[in-house]
Amino acid sequence: MKAAYFYTTGSPDVIQYGDLPEPDCGPDQVKVKVSAVSVNPIDTYIRNGANYWPLPQPYIPGCDLAGEIVEVGSRVQHLRSGQLVWGSNQGLMGRQGTFSEFASVDAKWLYPGPDGVDATDLAAVALVGITAHLGLFQHAKIQPEDTVFIRGGTGGVGAMVLQMAKAIGSKVITTAGNDLKAERCRELGADAVINYHATPNLAEAIRQHAPNGVNVFWETLREPDFDLAVNAMSENGRMILMAGRDARPAFPVGPFYVKGCSLHGFAMFKASAELQQVAASDINHWLSTGQLQAQIDRVMPLSAAAEAHRIQESSTVLKQSSLSGKIVLSTD
User: Are residues 77 and 184 in the same domain?
Assistant: First the structure.
């Protein structure tokens, strides 16, 4: 089978594209003919040498996938050959990744695709959708009457948070870096969009839209501004962190605890299969009803995996470009 893979960590140039043996299908696994995968920042961190866990040799990167089942393990009862499925959480915790024509995946990490939704969209929403759901519902305990602030409403996770919050009836305030992105945020349902390049005082702009403070502050920056966040939050506000392993910003302890706020950091791949299944069920429902749309910046061939990593890293780490959604790689 064709696959993108590497033997040693380093720059995107370590990624090769070529032939590897097809994986075996274990008794608790499902073998998938992969149609689409998407690129996530954690893929680039692992490729660059982040020593989270030992990697298989050679290592195929990638967490997300969507495709058709071609083989079902002997102990798997709820999935069948020929079924369109999607999933995430591969390529992590020592598991082999998804950037290949075939992938064998533990059945607990796979979900049937809803009718009318194609593999490209399913791959694009996998990790970011599950992350958004876990943050909003498991950690922030979002309620319909809440006001939510999101840094970057067209980002991979940000677009998911925006749409999920609107799906349950919450008010959403978000930021965008230009007028085109701001318009896309409005199309996705945002109640208020702040162009941060054209806004000299972000704190005041948030206050104008949420005079009583925001109930949920979703931070996407690697270096959070906690003074801004705590000032923007309401009494008992909840802040979600999803990035910044090396960040050590100052923290306003006094205002934070006096307001009764709470701070939640989490890594989606540490969530149980049961919690991720709950997220996937809601995601499927919202996709099928049109309440959730994939946010895709571009689609590239799997053979361009190294270039895709370069683009993702440039946006996420180097801040030299700005993606509006996910990079999806196609095996077709």
Answer: no
| 221's tokens | 């920056």
b/e map of 229-238 (b: 16 or more CB within 10 Å)?
bbebbbeebb
Q: Residues 180, 258: one domain?
A: yes
Cα 123 to the center of its chain, rounded Å = 10
Contacts of 131 (CB under 8 A, 6+ apart): 157, 160, 242, 268
Mean pLDDT computed over every residue of the chain: 95
Number of H helices, E strands in the chain: 9, 15
What pLDDT, on a 0 to 100 scale, did the predictor assign at position 323? 80
Of residues 292 and 89, more confidence is placed in 292
- Cα 71 to Cα 147: distance, rounded to the nearest angstrom: 45
Report whether pLDDT(100) > 70: yes
* Token pair in block for residue 299: 């689609």
Residues 67, 96 within the same domain: yes
Tokens found for residue 329: 């790689």
Q: Which of 183, 258, 259 lies closest to 214, judged by CA?
A: 259
Counted domains in the chain: 2
- 58 upstream amide cis, omega within 30 of 0: yes
Task: Answer whether residue 201 is part of any domain.
Answer: yes
Domain containing residue 10: CATH number? 3.90.180.10
How far is C-alpha 283 from the geometric centre of its chain's CA atoms?
13
Is 255 a member of any domain?
yes
Residue 163: inside a domain, yes or no? Answer: yes
Exposed/middle/buried for residue 204 (C-beta within 10 Å: 0-12, 13-18, 19+)? exposed
- In which domain, by residue range, is 221 found? 128-268
Q: Has residue 20 been placed in a domain? A: yes
